[in-house]
Specification:
The complex is a heterodimer. Chain A is an alpha+beta fold. Chain A is built from 20 helices and 16 strands. Chain A has a domain of 195 residues: Alpha-Beta Plaits, CATH 3.30.70.20. Chain A has a four-stranded mixed β-sheet, sandwiched between helices. In chain A, strand 10 and strand 11 form a beta hairpin. Chain A is globular and about 85 Å long. By secondary structure, chain B is an all-alpha fold. Chain B folds into three domains: 98 residues, Cytochrome Bc1 Complex, Chain D, domain 2, CATH 1.10.760; 98 residues, Cytochrome c-like domain (Cytochrome Bc1 Complex, Chain D, domain 2, Orthogonal Bundle); 34 residues, no CATH class. Chain B is built from 14 helices and no strands. Chain B is elongated, with a radius of gyration of 28 Å. Classes of the chains: A alpha+beta, B mainly alpha. At the A-B interface, loops of A face helix 14 of B.
């Protein structure tokens, strides 16, 4: 058992209102520099939709992630032999056309325009070329456009649906969509790290944050091609690649990352998970349907004395173990089993989990009358507008029973709470539903509390960073003791 | 210090190497004369393109001859009257500086000429080729050798690789690397001069190529016959050929591009634009 700690995340999609505050918070802090205008380390997509970059989930096109070739894990995009033929150019990378051309507006034209019959307008200017441009696409171009025949209908996840389900999904007045906020998943088996020819990417030992060393990066862009989530971006100004750093300077000082901190719907949870690193390869080789369960089995119980002992031996600080015990992520993923990894079939073992949205249909408009669906207060989720298969493709690699379990439990908790607070549902019925959903009354209360009444400290259980311990692995922290904070991180470049 | 010692040894070695490279030995000089001089000069065999060299040292001072061998063009440009006379006698043909020539080698060559001049019949007295008249069949045979339809016996490259004659009307014609040979027969003053040239082609480009793979005696007369025929026809240069050449090149580029496009037709070409196009097509086909 090789116990390691990982800062992990849960996004509760039922709570996401698609306001993009997270994206803006991230952009303002990290990616408003030259060369990064087009990057959105955090972005929010409308599902069904093609996302950003367009159709990133389609690995037939982008060749991201791993595949299991005859019992061996191989990167789809590159390898020791493949890279020789593609040494000057990674062939399967999104272009600016697939992201979007970033733009700003020439606002002075609003004020300087000569008097005329039309309203003056601010003309769009490309932030790459500085010339006037026609805006053709944006990072959330298909925002709220679930019915669009271009973007929504081409969502790769729709391939799991029957044509009938598909036509129902897109029927007028039955349109359905939900929001899908995405950041770097800080995977356990990151394809970006494996693909880098310069060894510039690394997964931090103490908290599992995946980073690109800006000094070692040589701009090969292998990580851009290899990441199946397309969360590594090339900065055309510096010639280096960049990605979400999970606001590690904030984490180290005990603050939640900016996108978490600013989240209006409070959908984001962050906490430590302990996992067994010995199992990574074995788990990543499992068949698609086994993957969700296999990844869950890697996550260790932080209360188990054996695990605690092994963790301490591996240099994990007591306070990190305590944080793991209080981790909201551990509850969502391992105890309640209602948070699932996105597209685990890419086999990078993402450590950002999603609670799938219920999206219940309350009623449908039928001619002049509004018809209430279902027998109970909430309709059966099999009749919900977003088919289980869609979620199955997105969050469970096609294993729909996992989705069914999550939705059933969420529905049961809602029914139970309705019975408690409003009382128009019989408590016996609610409890029966809880039993059927593998959920005790205590668990239902806990889920309800962490979902609806969660405070800042409930959502974000950030362990003390103990950088002094992490840095001991690389250099002597007493080296600079006498210099009272003075000294050079990099040696000055003058004659020796 | 170590470096100095080292460079001393290097210096000695380089001198030894240099000594072996300068053909001071008579056999080397003979070979040098054969490959570089004999195509234009004989010793006691009458003039070819250049004058007969028999007793040349009696006609001119040795000093002048060495200078001439080392830099013929320089002396011609300086307006030396004897040099201009030579040029006139050879109908405007200019002697070229031969590859690898130097003062010692020039002297050695003059010694060799002196020695050969004393002999009754010098080994450089003239071509060993038969004097049989050129036959009509020779022209056709020569054309085949020139164009490479018939390979050269000793494995040398066919003429067409570098040379063109105006009567060729194919898409590409002959090569453009070497000079146009339409009037080569006249330039080299007929059968004798041309044959001498062909026995050991001189010049920086041809001599290294044909040194190891000389033309066979049987091949020389047909080539002479062919080139003679070309000179007699003296066809004008076809301008269509140049246009064809450019068009053929452009066509080739297009064919290659199409081929590459087909071979890598499944390459990644971006996603969003294709999506827009496809969706628009579907949308309009439904209406």
């Amino acid at each position: 058992m090789d116990v390691r700690s990982q800062i992990s995340m849960v996004f509760h999609l039922d709570k996401c209102i698609g306001c993009h505050t997270c994206s803006i918070a991230c952009k303002n802090i990290w990616t408003d520099r030259k060369g990064t205008e087009y990057m959105w380390w955090n972005n929010v997509e409308t599902k069904p939709g093609t996302g950003y970059p367009t159709k990133w989930e389609d690995q037939e096109k982008y060749k991201g992630g791993w595949e299991n070739v005859k019992g061996k894990l191989k990167l789809r995009s590159t390898g020791k032999a493949k890279i020789i033929f593609n040494i000057f150019h990674n062939p399967h990378m999104p272009s600016m056309n697939d992201y979007y051309e970033p733009w700003t507006y020439k606002y002075e034209t609003l004020f300087n325009a000569p008097e005329g019959t039309d309203q003056p307008t601010a003309l769009p200017i490309s932030m790459v070329t500085g010339k006037y441009m026609d805006i053709e696409a944006g990072p959330n171009w298909d925002d709220d456009l679930s019915g669009s025949p271009i973007y929504a209908e081409n969502d790769p996840n729709l391939s799991a649906l029957t044509p009938e389900q598909k036509s129902q999904l897109f029927a007028i007045q039955r349109l359905v969509f939900f929001y899908f906020p995405r950041i770097c998943n800080h995977c356990l088996n990151p394809a970006c790290v494996a693909s880098c020819p310069s060894g510039a990417l690394y997964k931090r030992g103490e908290d599992g944050i995946v980073l690109i060393d800006q000094e070692r990066c040589r701009g090969w862009r292998s990580c851009v091609a290899a990441c199946p989530y397309k969360k590594s971006y090339y900065n055309w100004s510096t010639g280096k690649s960049e990605k979400c750093i999970l606001c590690f300077p904030r984490i180290e000082s005990g603050q939640a990352p900016a996108c978490f901190h600013s989240c209006v719907g409070r959908i984001r949870y962050l906490g430590v998970l302990l996992y067994d690193a010995d199992k990574i390869e074995e788990v990543a080789k499992k068949s698609d349907t086994e993957l969700v369960e296999a990844q869950r089995s890697m996550i260790l119980d932080p209360f188990d004395p054996e695990v605690i002992q092994a963790a301490l031996e591996n240099g994990i600080h007591e306070q990190v173990i305590t944080a793991a015990q209080n981790s909201p992520v551990y509850k969502f993923v391992k105890i309640w089993k209602i948070a699932l990894p996105p597209h685990i079939e890419f086999r990078t073992l993402p450590m950002l989990f999603y609670v799938p949205p219920l999206l219940p249909v309350m009623s449908s408009f039928n001619g002049d009358t509004i018809k209430n669906m279902g027998e109970g207060f909430f309709p059966d989720f099999d009749k919900a507008r977003a088919p289980i298969e869609f979620f199955g493709k997105l969050f469970a690699a096609g294993n729909n029973s996992k989705i069914r379990y999550v939705l059933k439990k969420q529905m049961a908790v809602r029914t139970y709470r309705r019975a408690v607070t409003v009382g128009d549902i019989e408590m016996d019925l609610a409890k029966k539903m809880l039993r059927e959903a593998d959920c005790s009354v205590e668990e239902a209360e806990a889920i309800y509390k962490l979902t609806s009444l969660c405070t800042f400290n409930d959502r974000f259980v950030i362990p003390p960073a103990h950088r002094e311990e992490a840095i001991e692995m690389l250099r002597d922290p007493l080296e600079y003791k006498q210099s009272a904070g003075f000294g050079f991180r990099e040696e000055p470049k003058r004659g020796s | 210090m170590a470096l100095k010692n080292h460079s001393g040894i290097l210096f000695k070695v380089s001198i030894i190497v240099a000594l072996f490279h300068i053909p001071l030995f008579s056999q080397d000089v003979v070979q040098y004369f054969k490959t570089n001089c004999a195509s234009c000069h004989t010793i006691g065999g009458g003039r070819l393109t250049g004058p007969d060299l028999k007793n040349v040292t009696q006609r001119q001072s040795r000093e002048w001859l060495v200078k001439w061998i080392l830099d013929p063009e320089g002396i011609l440009n300086s307006g030396d009257p004897y040099a201009l006379k030579l040029q006139k006698e050879s109908r405007g043909a200019i002697m070229r500086r031969t590859p690898g020539i130097n003062q010692d080698l020039a002297n050695a060559l003059l010694n060799l000429i002196d020695e050969e001049s004393k002999k009754e019949k010098s080994q450089f007295a003239g071509t060993r080729l038969s004097d049989r008249p050129l036959l009509p069949g020779d022209i056709e045979e020569g054309r085949k050798l020139f164009t490479g339809q018939k390979a050269l016996i000793n494995g040398g490259p066919s003429c067409i690789g570098c040379h063109h004659v105006n009567s060729f009307n194919g898409i590409l014609g002959g090569g453009r690397l070497g000079p146009n040979l339409t009037r080569a027969y006249a330039r080299l003053q007929g059968r004798k001069g041309l044959s001498a040239w062909l026995i050991a082609p001189p010049g920086l480009t041809m001599s290294p190529v044909f040194k190891e793979h000389p033309l066979d005696e049987k091949e020389i007369l047909p080539l002479v016959a062919f080139l003679k025929n070309e000179t007699e026809k003296d066809a004008p240069q076809s301008s269509a050929l140049m246009i064809n050449f450019i068009l053929f090149g452009l066509g080739g580029v297009v064919v290659l591009l199409v081929l590459f496009d087909l071979i890598w037709s499944r390459r990644f070409k971006g996603v969003r634009q294709a999506l827009l196009k496809e969706s628009k097509q579907i949308f309009y086909s439904k209406r």
